Amino acid sequence: MMFFRPEVYQLRLKFRAVQALTLAVTVSLSSQAPAATSALINVQEQPDTVTAKAFNSFAAPYQIDYQRLSENQEMLQIALDNPDTQIEIKRQGNKLLVRLKGVTASSAHGSMPVLGQKLTGLLQRIEAEQRGKDTWLIFTVSKDFEYQSYQLDNLIKIQIQPVRAIQQNTVTPKIYSGKPISVDFQQVEVRSVLHLLSQFTDTNIVATDQVTGSLMLNLVNVPWDQALDIILTSQQLGKQIQGNVILVAPLAQMAKQRAQQLAIEQQSQALMPLRSEYIRLNYAKAADLQALIIKASGSPTPTPVAMQHLPASTAVANAPSALPAVVTRLNLPVSSRLLSSRGVIAVDARTNTLIIKDTADSLSNIHALIKQIDIPVRQVMIEVRMVSATDNFSKEMGVKWGLLSKGVAHNDDLLVGASDQTLADLKSFSAPNTAYKGRNKSRAGYAITRPDNLNVDLGISNPAGRIAFGLLSMSDLMIDLELSAMQAEGRGEVISTPKILTLDKQTATVSSGTKIPYQSESEGGGTTTQFEEALLSLQVTPSITPEDKISLQLNIENGRPNPVGNGVILIDTDRLSTRVTVGDGQTLVLGGIYRNQIFNNTQKVPFFGDLPYIGRLFKQDLRRNDQQELLIFVTPKLMQLP
Q1: SS3 state of residue 81
Q2: Whole-number mean pLDDT of the chain?
Q3: Are the beta carbons of 478 and 454 closer than 8 angstroms?
Q4: Across residues 40-64, what is the average pLDDT?
Q5: For the purposes of burial, counting CB atoms within 10 Å of the CB of 221, is it exposed (0-12), middle (13-18) or buried (19 or more)?
Q6: CB distance 385 to 467 below 8 Å
Q7: Closest by Cα among 340, 344, 368 to 354
Q8: Is residue 228 scored above 80 in pLDDT?
Q9: How many Cα neighbours within 13 Å face the side chain of 3?
Q10: What does DSSP assign to residue 426?
Q11: Radius of gyration of the chain from Cα atoms?
Q12: DSSP 43
């Protein structure tokens, strides 16, 4: 850890009827901590505000108020019993030291004040030490920090925040940009302080005769322009910047001067001659701009007209309370009227022309407004690409076989067939007697052609290939066997690319698809034909940022007919709704959907289908794997203005 020696430069100036003034500019901070025993000052922690008092049975020499302004800002306020108490504030490592000169916190019992317990925010601990006749308040901070402090009369305010938070705040425009200074004034006249600030900052400051009074001021590491504002606020003074000169006067005097100036302007405006001008507009609608000018003039307004091609006037038409922001963006004072009390404005819709009669100043303001409003609105081309890829694979294997016999095992009464109808045919079938092994037997001719003569019917419906076997034996036995198999593979890719061109901040829609008819019941009991749309649609609202990036509000829908049989058609829909920001001409993947469906189906005869090897004759297998992937891309492009 590195420490720096403090180097203090003092500038002593004397003014009439005032004691010598001391201006202390702290260049670096002390690294040496005075050796002394410390007593913990306890602070009762509360969510936002903590108040701690050093007290005894007779008097309270100071009071500490702790307030958490935000996550990265905390405020300490020390109220002194004696406003003439001199203070010294410096930083030592991760501690902030406040010295109260001539302040003792001893009570009648000789004990140190007890204020509360340990804190948990940026400020972690408060301690007090008695060093001789002075009281030192020691504030322990949890991380590297910066601080600003100032004193008004008996109130000391110290704002603490992390260094990182200060660096982040520099991204936004600074309110105070003056050089940080540290000052210590004890009961000095306000005019003398203003004179000292003028010399130190090389700034021209003029104070009127009504600027009087005195104050005690102690500021540490505060920008000089902020110090000036603090001084003016404490004395109810105001300032007016005219070029490189700052005029300081009481607020009441400045308000009176403004009222007088306004009255003079109104009187001079009533005497100014009127001029007539015809202003033909190129891009804006004259009627919409007329409504905007009337609103900005504070006159009774007609029914607002939404100017869809002009974002500024849209804000005015839809939200009259937003008018000051619009006028400010156009660099026109909110208090100024575009039309004077004698001004008249009319519209020629056929030629899109404004007809205005008013003073030269009012016409100049109107021309400034038109120059910024009557411009072409930028356009955006949005291209969306939807890629749908499919990969399907299926494999089926099946078997059919049947057994037919009469006179099995030389028993004419034992018949074997695939169904009861087959057995009935066998019983009624006759054939000539044939001698077989010394016996006369009626041998079947097997002329049965029934298609249901199957003991196992597990063939596939649409086979790609099949083979059949037949076995006819002298023992009155016939076996039919058919094996079938099918394997199918399919790959496909569908690319849909809707495009649309639209204006900045304007919603546009493009769609393409088909209408699917379906039957529905009517109230009279009949049927009516209605239609359902299966659309590929794109709805988009672009917004161009100041950095020429494009913010898109997208709603994309892709509907596809899916017939399922019996005249029923389903609609498969993919839908995406999102808001993204894309660079000009860049392609962004908005999202995707991946589906993988796996089917394994087996049909078999119980027990026999589980037998090894021969179980293949008693079952049918189906294997199927369907993969589908959908990706959605968007590419916006800024179109060049003509």
Answers
A1: coil
A2: 73
A3: no
A4: 44
A5: middle
A6: no
A7: 344
A8: yes
A9: 12
A10: H
A11: 47
A12: B
Distance set, CA 368 to CA 304, 334, 373, 374, 574 (Å): 22, 14, 9, 10, 49
CATH number of 275-373: 3.30.1370.120
Q: What is the pTM of this model?
A: 0.46
Query: What letter does residue 408 receive in the DSSP assignment?
Result: G
> Is the pLDDT score of 450 beyond 90?
no
Give the residue from 111, 160, 168 showing the smallest Cα distance to 140: 160
Tens-place pLDDT, residues 103-144: 875 433 333 333 444 566 788 888 888 888 888 888 888 888
Q: Which CATH architecture has domain 1-32+179-263?
A: 3-Layer(bab) Sandwich (3.55)
Looking at the DSSP bridge assignments, the partners of residue 162 are: 145
Within its chain, how far is the Cα of 348 from the centroid?
A: 44
* Gap between the Cα atoms of 362 and 349, Å rounded: 22
The pLDDT assigned to 353 comes to: 93
Q: In this model, does residue 60 exceed pLDDT 70?
A: no
Give phi and psi for 372, each to the nearest 5: -95, -20
pLDDT over 80 (residue 62):
no
Domains 39-172 and 275-373 in one fold: no
**Biggest CA-to-CA distance, the chain:** 160
The more confident residue out of 53 and 624 is 624
Closest by CA to 399, choosing from 454, 471, 448, 472, is: 454
CA angle 22, 9, 131 (to 5 degrees): 75
Query: What 3-state DSSP class applies to 174?
Result: coil
pLDDT at site 321: 38
Lowest mean pLDDT among 2-16, 253-267, 473-487: 2-16
Could you tell me whether strands 379-406 and 214-223 are parallel, antiparallel, or unpaired per DSSP bridges? unpaired
The string over 510-520, giving b where at least 16 C-beta atoms fall within 10 Å of a residue's C-beta and e elsewhere, is: beebeebeeee
Which residues partner with 487 through β-bridges? 395
| Cα–Cα nearest to 174, from 223, 231, 244, 236 | 223
Q: Give the contacts of 287 (CB within 8 A, at least 6 positions apart).
A: 305, 347, 349
Which helix (H) or strand (E) segment holds residue 175: the answer is: none
Lowest mean pLDDT among 38-47, 403-412, 484-493, 569-578: 38-47
Domain boundaries, the chain: 1-32+179-263, 39-172, 275-373, 397-487, 491-639
- Residue 543 CA to residue 506 CA, distance in Å, equals 8
Least confident of 143-147, 476-480, 491-495: 476-480
Q: How many CA atoms are closer than 13 Å to the CA of 119, on its beta-carbon side?
A: 25
- 39-172: in CATH 3.30.70.1530: no
Using CA atoms, how far residue 487 sits from 89, 459, 524, 578, in Å, is 88, 14, 51, 41
CB atoms inside a 10 Å sphere around CB 485? 17
* Higher-scoring residue by pLDDT: 179, 350: 350
What are the backbone angles phi and psi of residue 26, rounded to the nearest 5°? -85, 120
Please choose, from the candidates 51, 78, 61, 228, the residue with its C-alpha nearest in 3D space to the C-alpha of residue 159.
78
- Residue among 348, 346, 323 nearest 336 (CA): 323
Helix (H) or strand (E) holding 318: helix 311-318
At 571, which amino acid appears?
I
615-628: average pLDDT = 87
Percent of the chain with pLDDT over 70: 70
